[in-house]
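Pipeline run #58 for the internal structure catalog. This entry was flagged by the ingest filter as a single-chain record with no existing model, so it goes straight to prediction. Upstream metadata was stripped on purpose; only the residue string is passed forward. Reviewer on rotation: M.T. Logging verbosity set to normal.
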Amino acid sequence: MTHSRLPATAAPAAGKTDDDLREDVVCQLAWDERLNGAQIGVQVAHGVVTLGGVVDGWIQYNAAAESAHRVPEVIDVANEIQVRGAAVDAPADTDLAVAVRRALEWDARLPGRGIHSTVSGGVVTLEGSIASLAQRSEATRAVARLHGVRRVVNRLQVPVEGEQP
């Protein structure tokens, strides 16, 4: 198998400089309502963005990387942002799993028992079968906002038209 890799000195594809990309990422972070762009430092080398700084929660941590990836010509993102108080006040995985279960069952738009979760180190993995893409997105939203959730891996399956969930 052949792997294609950019040489270490490669410029971004369409010719933007790293300074141009940095400015584009800073602007994208400023537009994201979930973020305070002033809290996040941005460096760019060969199209690879490195984010740094301190934010208040995991939602902002994940939002910063998502925002950077939305900028055309950004190749990769290294998220080195620190979450304020993350290690101190993070709930135990067992407590977080209980909170995830409650959130899934209390959301009237979701088939709570049809979704199974695994929690490890604050990363929640959702599995199971649900009826629609809207439910798939809602499950991620319902869980991502919980205190202590670092990331949500959504492996929920939506059946093809005509199949039963």
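catalog note: Residues 1-13 have pLDDT under 50 and may be disordered.
catalog note: Strands lie at 40-45, 48-55, 76-79, 82-83, 115-120, 123-129, 151-157.
status: ready for reviewer M.T.
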